[in-house]
Backbone:
C-alpha cells in the first residue's frame, strides 16, 4: 500500500497533492530558506474565513496566526536532503513507523523481557498490516509529527523517568496547541490510572496548561494583531463547533474512525496468542480513549483526517501496553488448540479485511477503474478517466514551474492536484491573489479540476468577471479559454504589465515586465511577532487610562 500510495502520488492527479499538503511543503521550504514560520499560500481570506480573520493587509502571514508549530521543524533538515513532495510524505512515514517500532521494542523489552522478541514480531506485523497508513498519509500535516513525542512520554512514564517524561511532554506541547490539549488529557489519564505517578500527572498537566494558556492568550493574539479578526483562534473555533454536533452524522463518523476501529481485532489476536494481560481492560481502553480525548472530539466535529493522529498513537500505545502485560511465553513450546487456532484465523481475517477496506483507495488507478465500473460507480469512473487525461498537462506545468527561479514570485491558476508539487517556494499565491503583481503568472487552460470558479461573459472586463469569482471546495472548477484570453488581454494588451513567455494549448506563462517588490513584514517571520505582545499591552494600558 505504501508503494501504491507513491505510485498514485506520481500521477499528479492524486487527492494527496491537493490543498492541505501545500502548507507543510511551504512551511518546511521557508524554514530551511530564511523565512521561518511564514506562509504566503494561506495569507488571504481564503484561509481567514475558517480560522478567524477576514482581512490581512499583507501578502504574507505568520503561521502562528493559524497554529503554533515548533518541534515539527526539527524534521525539516531531513526533508531538505531531497526537498520535494514525495519525500515530505516519506519523512512522515519514516518518522511515525520508526517511532512506533522503537517504542514497541523498548516498551516490550521493559514490560516483558523474557519474550519481547516474539511479541515484538507480533506488534510490528500488526502495525504494518493495519490501516494506520490511511491516517499517516493525510496531507503531511504537522500534527503528524506529534507521535514520537507522545510515545516517548508514555515510555518514560512506564519506566518512571521523570526528566525524560517532562521533556517529552513539553516537546509534544510544542508540536501544536492541539497536541498540548492532548498532553493535558494524557496527564488526566495518568492521574486516574497511574496512582503512584500522580506527581507526574500534576507536574506535566501544569506544564501543558501553562503552555496552552501562553499560546491562546499571548502568542496567537500577537501573531494575529495586524489582522482584521472575524472570530477567535483556530482552536477556539473548533471547540465552538462541539456545541453544534449533529447526532445524525454518527454513521459518517464511524467511517472516519475506520483506521482505529479496524485495528481493534489486533487486541483479540494478542489475547489469543499470549493470553489475558495482568492489567484491567478498563485502563487499556482509557489510554486509547481519555489520553487523546480532544482529538476524538475534533475528529467527530471537523472530520477525522489528520485529526485522528493522536487517537492512532494512543491506540497503538494501549495495544503495546496490553501486549507487554501478558505472560512471558517460550514460542518454541507454545501450542494452540484447534478451537483457538480457528478463532485466531477468524479474528485475523477480520483484521486484514478491515485494514484492506480502509486502504482500498490506495490501489492504483488502473486497478480501481474496472472495480468502480463493476460496482456501477459512474461518478468515480468519470473522475478517474478525466484524471488520466490530464496527467500529461499537469506534468508539463510542474516541469515549467521547476524551471522558474525560486527567488522569483509566482501566482498560479491550475488543476488543484498540481499545488502540492509547486508549493516549495516562499513567494507563491493562488489566483487571483496578487496575480497581477507576482513576477510570473502560470495558467493551465482547459483544466477541469481547479480551485477557482469564474465565468467570463463576452466583452466583460477581467475585473468585472473576478468580482463574481469564488473558490470551490470540491476542486471541480473549469479554467475556460475565455478566462485565459481575458487574463492575457488585461495584463499583456491593455495594461502592458506582462509579456507572454509560453502560449500553448496546455500552458500559458506570463512574466511581469517590471518587478514589483512585495512588502515582507518582519512580524510574519520567525519570532518577529514578539514586539506585538508589548504593543498590545501598551495599547490596553492606554485604553484603560
Residues:
Amino acid at each position: 500500500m505504501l508503494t501504491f500510495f507513491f505510485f498514485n502520488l506520481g500521477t499528479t492527479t492524486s487527492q494527496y497533492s491537493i490543498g492541505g499538503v501545500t502548507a507543510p511543503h511551504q512551511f518546511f521550504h521557508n524554514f530551511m530558506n530564511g523565512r521561518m514560520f511564514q506562509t504566503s499560500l494561506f495569507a488571504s481570506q481564503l484561509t481567514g474565513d475558517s480560522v478567524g480573520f477576514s482581512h490581512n493587509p499583507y501578502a504574507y502571514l505568520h503561521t502562528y496566526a493559524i497554529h503554533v508549530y515548533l518541534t515539527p521543524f526539527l524534521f525539516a533538515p531531513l526533508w531538505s536532503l531531497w526537498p520535494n513532495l514525495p519525500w515530505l510524505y516519506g519523512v512522515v512515514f519514516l518518522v511515525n513507523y520508526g517511532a512506533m517500532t522503537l517504542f514497541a521494542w523498548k516498551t516490550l523489552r521493559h514490560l516483558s523481557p523474557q519474550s519481547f522478541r516474539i511479541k515484538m514480531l507480533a506488534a510490528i506485523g500488526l502495525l504494518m498490516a493495519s490501516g494506520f497508513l490511511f491516517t499517516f498519509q493525510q496531507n503531511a500535516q504537522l500534527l503528524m509529527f506529534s507521535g514520537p513525542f507522545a510515545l516517548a512520554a508514555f515510555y518514560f512514564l512506564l519506566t518512571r523517568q521523570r526528566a525524560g517524561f517532562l521533556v517529552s511532554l513539553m516537546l509534544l506541547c510544542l508540536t501544536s496547541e492541539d497536541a498540548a490539549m492532548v498532553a493535558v488529557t494524557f496527564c488526566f489519564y495518568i492521574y486516574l490510572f497511574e496512582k503512584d505517578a500522580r506527581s507526574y500527572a500534576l507536574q506535566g498537566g501544569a506544564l501543558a496548561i501553562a503552555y496552552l494558556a501562553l499560546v491562546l492568550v499571548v502568542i496567537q493574539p500577537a501573531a494575529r494583531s495586524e489582522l482584521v479578526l472575524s472570530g477567535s483562534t483556530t482552536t477556539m473555533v473548533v471547540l465552538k463547533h462541539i456545541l453544534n454536533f449533529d447526532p445524525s452524522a454518527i454513521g459518517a463518523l464511524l467511517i472516519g474512525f475506520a483506521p482505529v476501529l479496524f485495528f481493534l481485532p489486533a487486541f483479540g489476536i494478542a489475547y489469543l496468542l499470549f493470553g489475558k494481560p495482568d492489567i484491567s481492560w478498563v485502563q487499556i481502553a482509557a489510554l486509547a480513549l481519555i489520553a487523546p480525548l480532544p482529538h476524538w472530539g475534533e475528529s467527530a466535529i471537523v472530520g477525522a483526517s489528520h485529526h485522528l493522529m493522536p487517537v492512532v498513537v494512543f491506540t497503538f500505545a494501549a495495544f503495546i501496553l496490553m501486549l507487554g502485560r501478558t505472560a512471558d511465553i517460550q514460542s518454541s513450546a507454545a501450542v494452540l488448540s484447534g478451537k483457538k487456532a480457528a478463532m485466531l484465523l477468524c479474528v485475523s481475517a477480520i483484521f486484514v479485511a478491515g485494514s484492506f477496506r480502509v486502504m482500498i483507495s490506495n490501489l492504483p488507478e488502473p486497478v480501481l477503474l474496472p472495480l468502480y465500473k463493476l460496482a456501477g460507480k459512474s461518478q468515480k469512473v468519470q473522475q478517474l478517466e478525466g484524471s488520466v487525461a490530464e496527467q500529461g498537462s499537469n506534468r508539463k506545468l510542474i516541469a515549467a514551474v521547476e524551471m522558474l527561479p525560486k527567488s522569483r514570485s509566482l501566482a498560479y491558476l491550475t488543476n488543484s492536484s498540481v499545488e502540492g508539487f509547486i508549493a516549495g517556494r516562499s513567494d507563491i499565491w493562488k489566483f487571483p491573489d496578487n496575480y497581477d503583481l507576482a513576477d510570473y503568472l502560470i495558467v493551465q487552460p482547459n483544466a477541469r479540476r481547479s480551485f477557482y470558479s469564474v465565468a467570463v461573459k463576452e466583452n466583460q472586463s477581467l475585473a468585472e468577471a473576478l468580482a463574481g469569482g469564488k473558490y470551490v471546495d470540491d476542486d471541480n472548477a473549469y479554467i475556460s479559454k475565455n478566462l485565459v484570453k481575458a487574463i492575457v488581454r488585461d495584463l499583456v494588451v491593455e495594461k502592458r504589465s506582462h509579456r507572454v513567455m509560453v502560449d500553448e494549448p496546455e500552458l500559458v506563462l506570463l512574466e511581469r515586465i517590471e518587478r514589483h517588490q512585495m512588502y515582507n513584514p518582519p512580524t510574519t517571520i520567525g519570532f518577529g511577532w514578539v514586539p506585538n505582545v508589548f504593543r498590545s499591552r501598551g495599547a490596553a494600558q492606554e485604553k484603560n487610562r
